[in-house]
Amino acid sequence: MKKSYLIFFILCYSVNAQNIKASSVKKEMKRVANWQIDHFRDTYSGRKKPHHIADWTNGALYVGMVKYAEIAKNKKYWKWLKNIGEQQNWKLHWRKYHADDHVVGQMYVELYRKYGDKEMIAETIKGMNYIIDNPSKEPITLDNYKHLERWTWCDALFMAPPLLAKLANETNDSKYTTFMMREYEATKQHLFDFEENLFYRDNSYIGKLAHGNKIFWSRGNGWVFGGLTLIMDEYEKDSEAYEYFKDIYLKMAKKLIDIQTPQGHWAMSLLSQDVYPTPETSGTSFFTFGLAWGINNGLLDKSTYLPHIEKAWSSLCSHITKDGMLGYVQPIGAAPGNAWADKTEVYGAGAFLAAGAEIYKMLKK
């Protein structure tokens, strides 16, 4: 009897450990992508109006939607993205220096790469050139939200640096890389905790403890970790830029698998799992995306990291509703908080699609 039970347990474990198939990943991505497109102009995070189409929230969605469009083999997703660019007249959002208003430019570059129309990136190049030629003189600190012209909060490292890396690649002009790396290093020195290998959301959290632990916001670090992969995609593996970002990436990756919850997600306050037991899918999606990318690009050992990716993906998929909505996405915020099974956000869907795309590539290999 005991022997039969042991065999049954081993068989069940083997099935559970290998239950992610490329076809099922693509199916879940399609459900989430289609639901989000159908509900694109809904209101989220308690706002009275839908997000502006060039808002950072949607910019993160577009990053994931581009990655899904590349594997979906259905032109409707490219057409949907292209329509967004046309509605916006291929312009960045309204604030010249604010990183959140630059992220939509990442989609423009990807559409330019597909369609070859220089009009798609002309305004983006113009906007980034202005910033480089007229760099902000504001401090790197974030004081009561007064200083937002530089990358003074860690989310910004997803929004602007990948765009500058893409422009460096497309224009073959090193000025974008030079500016980007200088500003990135300033933010790293300001917000990176060299003991924990995680980023503070902004300087208001440096030196503070909650429940005896330092406060590292899950989605904030997810922005950084996902952004690192987008940057490294634009550089040769032996380049100075690639090596710089790889160093940060590997330190974060090692830390992340050490603090993943037994349920597969990451706690909203990364070092306080017991205080924040509620699942949260936006940070978890970004981490899953980044870890799967690392295996696909030969930076992470598959035998070590794959079980963590499988566990995270299973957790994420368990929070998709029957209709295709990704639940448990923390609303707009700047710190650990609450998430609910019946609430979502566009950036959560974007992060999920990015994660699925990398897992799909990994499994297809």
UniProtKB/TrEMBL annotation:
GO molecular function, one term: hydrolase activity
Gene Ontology BP, a term: carbohydrate metabolic process
InterPro entries hit by this protein: 6-hairpin_glycosidase_sf, 6hp_glycosidase-like_sf, Glyco_hydro_88, PolySaccharide_Degr_Enz
Superkingdom of the source species: Bacteria
Pfam families: Glyco_hydro_88 (PF07470)
Keywords attached to this entry: Hydrolase
Protein name: Glycoside hydrolase family 88 protein
Species whose genome carries this gene: Seonamhaeicola algicola
Lineage: Bacteria, Pseudomonadati, Bacteroidota, Flavobacteriia, Flavobacteriales
